[in-house]
Specification:
Order of helices and strands: EEEEHEEEEHEEEEHHH
Strand order of the largest sheet: 6-5-1-2-3-4-7
Number of helices: 5
Structural class: alpha+beta
Distance between the termini: 27 Å
CATH architecture of the largest domain: Orthogonal Bundle
Number of strands: 12
Largest sheet: 7 strands, antiparallel
Radius of gyration: 20 Å
C-alpha cells in the first residue's frame, strides 16, 4: 500500500478552524504585530507578538465547533481561567506576568490570554546541563503554588518548563490548574483529599524530571522514592495511555501525522521541534 502524503490539520482539528492568529492586535491600548506561531492544535493557537513595550505570548483558545456543537464557551472559560491564575501569581517569581486584555479593532477577545514573553527554550529542547539550583528553585515555586490551595496539574510535560537565557526556570501554561477555595465545597474533606492527591502528582512529575536530568544531585533514597509511582497515577495511566494511543492512531489514519507522534506533523509545535515526543 502506498503511503499517504502528509497533510495539514483540517478545521475540526484546529482551535480556530480555518482562521489563524491575527496579524495585529491591541493590549492596553498598545498595538502588537505577529512574529510567529508557536503551535496550532485542537485546543489552542499560541503565538508571539511584538510591540513598543516588548514581546508577549497570546493563546487563542478553542473557537471551532465540533460537529455542530459550539465551543466558543469553552475557549472563553479556558482563557478566563488562565488570566485569573496569571493575576493570582503576579508576585510569584519565575512565572510569566499577565499582559492584559487582548482586543482586535476595538473588540475584546474573551477567548485569548496573554502574558509577557520569557526568552529561552523549553526544558525539552535545552541541550546543556541545568544548573544545580534549577530543580530546587522549581520545587520552591511549586511550594508557593501549593500553599494557595492550588495544584499545577501539568508538570508531566517538559515543554511547560522554560529555561531562560540565564539558565533560570520558569513555569508556563496555567489553564488547567486546580484551585480550591476556603468556602464549601472547597473546604470539605473529599475536596481536600483530592487536592492532596493532585499536589502529590505535581511533586512526582517534577521529581521525575529531576531524576532524568540531574540524578547526580539526589540521594539514593530520593532516587528510589522517585521510582515509586503513586497508586492513583497508575490508575490514571490505565485510562490515559489507551486514549492517547487511539488519538495518535486517528491522527495518523487521517494523514495529519506520519508516526502518531506530534513531531511527525506538517506544523510541529515549538516545544517539540528538534526532539522526539
Amino acid at each position: 500500500m502506498m503511503n499517504k502524503a502528509l497533510r495539514p490539520r483540517t478545521k475540526l482539528f484546529r482551535a480556530l478552524g480555518l482562521e489563524d492568529p491575527p496579524q495585529t492586535l491591541q493590549i492596553a491600548a498598545e498595538s502588537y504585530e505577529l512574529v510567529k506561531v508557536f503551535k496550532h492544535d485542537s485546543w489552542a493557537a499560541t503565538a508571539l507578538y511584538e510591540g513598543a513595550k516588548g514581546l508577549v505570548v497570546c493563546k487563542f483558545n478553542r473557537q471551532q465547533a465540533i460537529f455542530g456543537l459550539p465551543m466558543r464557551w469553552l475557549g472563553k472559560a479556558l482563557a478566563q481561567r488562565e488570566n485569573r491564575f496569571l493575576q493570582l501569581f503576579a508576585q510569584v517569581p519565575h512565572l510569566p506576568k499577565f499582559s492584559g486584555a487582548v482586543s482586535v479593532a476595538g473588540k475584546i477577545l474573551p477567548h485569548v490570554s496573554a502574558h509577557d514573553y520569557i526568552e529561552g527554550v523549553p526544558l525539552r529542547q535545552y541541550s546543556q546541563k541545568v544548573k544545580d539550583d534549577f530543580f530546587p528553585k522549581l520545587q520552591q515555586i511549586l511550594q508557593i503554588i501549593h500553599s494557595q490551595n492550588i495544584s499545577y496539574m501539568d508538570l508531566n510535560k517538559q515543554e511547560n518548563i522554560l529555561v531562560d537565557l540565564q539558565g533560570e526556570p520558569y513555569l508556563i501554561d496555567f489553564q488547567i490548574c486546580f484551585h480550591l477555595k476556603n468556602s464549601w465545597p472547597g473546604n470539605s474533606a473529599p475536596m481536600r483529599g483530592l487536592l492532596k492527591l493532585l499536589q502529590e502528582s505535581d511533586r512526582f512529575h517534577l521529581m521525575k524530571h529531576y531524576v532524568k536530568l540531574r540524578p547526580d544531585l539526589l540521594t539514593p533514597e530520593e532516587l528510589q522514592k522517585a521510582q515509586q509511582r503513586p497508586w492513583f497515577l497508575k490508575v490514571y495511566r490505565c485510562i490515559q495511555i489507551p486514549l492517547r494511543t487511539a488519538r495518535r492512531k486517528l491522527l495518523t489514519l487521517l494523514g495529519f501525522r506520519k508516526s502518531g507522534k506530534v513531531t511527525s506533523e506538517v506544523f510541529v509545535e515549538e516545544g517539540f521541534r528538534g526532539k522526539e515526543e
